[in-house]
Amino acid sequence: MWRVRATWQGGNIGTGFTNLFFEGGVSTAQAAADAARAFFNTAYGSGGMLPSGISITFDPTVTDINVETGLMGGEESVTTPLAVTGGDSTVYAAVAGACVTWVTNGFVGGKRVRGRTFLVPVGGQGLQANGTLGTTFLTGLATACNNLIAAAPSFSVWHRPASVAAGGGQLFQVLQAKVADKTAYLTSRR
Predict the structure, then answer these.
(1) Hey, is 123 helix, strand or coil?
(2) Which tens digit of pLDDT belongs to each residue from 54-111?
(3) pLDDT tens by residue, 154-168
(4) What is the C-alpha radius of gyration for the chain, rounded to an integer number of angstroms?
(5) Are 179 and 142 in contact (CB under 8 A)?
(6) What 3-state class would DSSP assign to 34?
(7) Closest CA to 83 of 113, 54, 109, 107
(8) Packing angle between helix 135-150 and helix 29-43, nearest 10 degrees?
(9) Which candidate, 47, 59, 68, places its Cα nearest to that of 18?
(10) How far is the CA of 17 from the CAs of 33, 111, 175, in angstroms?
(11) What is the pTM for the complete model shown?
(12) 3-state SS, residue 87
């Protein structure tokens, strides 16, 4: 599988990472990187709802990871996607934004496999006066999610193995995205 890493930095948020996973294949590394960039760019309205001073950058390589063990098998160089740069100069809360829940048809240990992606922070342009997510932001985020799900290679959720020795990692294609019309809070960045 391919792992595309997006790095968040600037403002008062510190530095954080978002990892997105895609089905692997030599010819798909660039497509995975481009799909990841398009997701963030569309979700944030070309940066118009991302606070000023914050940027989302992408690695110049896409990592090939063994699904079963989680071990890196190499890296594929890609044309580095352009950064998504914040252009919203209104006030924002550094820990508040949106959360996307990615739904799959996979089950492990009797539980449905789901993933989450936090889009934190969201600038004031992406919020309503009552503190919930704005209609324009939600519409853009829905479009971004649908485009990512429809992209090739297939966007997926990775269920990590219990350990490298035990193996057992599995990759499940994302079929649907759910976003609640309320702010989500991110308490740490890793």
Answers:
(1) coil
(2) 999 999 999 999 999 999 999 999 999 999 999 999 999 999 999 999 999 999 999 9
(3) 999 999 998 888 889
(4) 16
(5) yes
(6) helix
(7) 54
(8) 170
(9) 59
(10) 14, 26, 23
(11) 0.94
(12) coil
